[in-house]
Amino acid sequence: xxxxxxxxxxxxxxxxxxxxxxxxxxxxxxIAAAPxxxxxxxxxxxxxxTEVGRLAPKAMAEAMKADETFHGLVAGGKFAAITVxxxxxxxxxxxxxxxxxxxxxxDTKEKDITAAEAIARYIEKQIPSRDQLFVPAP
Length: 138
Fold this sequence. Notes:
Largest sheet: 5 strands, antiparallel
CATH class: Alpha Beta
Strand content: 25-35%
Order of helices and strands: HEEHEEEH
Distance between the termini: 7 Å
Number of helices: 3
Number of domains: 1
CATH superfamily: GAF domain
Strand order of the largest sheet: 2-1-5-4-3
Structural class: alpha+beta
CATH architecture: 2-Layer Sandwich
CATH topology: Beta-Lactamase
Shape: globular
């Protein structure tokens, strides 16, 4: 692995770890994008390293295409899954982040979305483009 590739991988790992540490309600984080425009979206970063390199969940590609935040309940309503598009400095969608949170008393869809969108804005500042998500081929 080239030094540039190692640096990108470590930076993405650190951003995800920082988000998880600052948001203990999160149980899963995935960041996905198409490696090149027109290709299927791949998970480029995750709390679960075994997910990296796999095809992204369908909701991530749909959120990117629609340029919309998606919210849904999973596991019988025990968890919320929120998918937020990530935008570059030109406001173009380049990726998506999918967060899974535990449902607590008093949580609402609006609160979940507000928190997820704040996390997405932080990630956009740290990882400002699709190029930063993928390790360049040697």
